[in-house]
Amino acid sequence: MRFRLLLLNMALLGAGIFVSCHKEEKKDSEMMDDRPVEVTEAITDSVVLYNTYPGYLNAEYYAEVVGLVNARIMSMNYSSGQYVNKGQVLFTLDPTTYRDAVTRAEATLKSNESALTYAKSHYDAVMKALEDNAVSKMEVLQAESDFHQAEANVNDSKAALHLAQVNLGYCTVTAPISGYITSNTLSVGNYITGADSPVKLAEIYANTHLYAVFQVEATNYDQMTSGNKSIEETLYKNVPLEFKETLQNSYTADLSYVAPSVDRSTGTLHLEGKVTNKDNELKPGMYVTIKLPYGENPRATLVKDASIGTDQLGRYMFVLNDSNIVMKRRIEVGELYHDSLRVINKGIEPGEKYITKALLTVRAGEKVKPVMGK
What we know:
alpha+beta, 6-stranded antiparallel beta barrel, 4-stranded antiparallel sheet, 20 strands, about 30% helix
């Protein structure tokens, strides 16, 4: 009898525990269903449509600093990376050989000028003597020849002196343009042979303005502009640019050049857009994405870009149905709009509610309590 009572008590106790656990699970489930989740609605707005093209930046002006004589580098008069002005002395080369050449050329010129003076006087005297038949015509011809030869010698001497002075001037290497200069390719003490072929010593980039260089399929360009020059003039001002690097400033380009012919090997047009370089932040050679506008969507669907998730199958969002059940919706996205919104080309309709926060904790099929956010 006692054994039966013990079994009965144990059965009742187990049933109580089961009922208690079942109630606890149900309570937890109800709390999960009722938990608040921030949502908002997909909106519509007029959005400019873009095609994106990869490109790179070129300096507005670029020049090589070169040595043009055979000489040893005596000094470098700048710091790598600094801004230099046109005409500023950058390098000095050993001028000894060329200074001596100038001295010799000056002496030769003086000697030939003296010879010319004598030849001219002699020629004048012979011509006067010819009037009195005091000299033969042969002597006159010889005096005239000597005079013209002396003139030629003087001209040759002047040219040689000019060349010697030019070469001496090349011993002082100056900046051909204003801009930012690279480090030197050869250090002080090196001997260069620039008389045979110019020797590059450094490079200067004028970076106040840069050019975004890119290629566009010729057929696409014709479709975007429809051959209308006014469209080019209005659309292709302030073209947005994007960079892989995080920059302090935002940048746009004004389309400044469209190639007059199509590259037959690629079927593309070469385009360039002029960019103002703020705070010298941009550098030639940087890769850039050019967002070329081609039209406008007056009723584009927009959602918060941060509410979009990505997995192995692509982009998705968590959307609520009329019963506040979470659904995982596959979407196709367009361009970013005003830095925080994303154009949705397919998958979401205007007015649909989507989850903006707690994306890592919600699950498809879960019922939630929507709280409208901003």
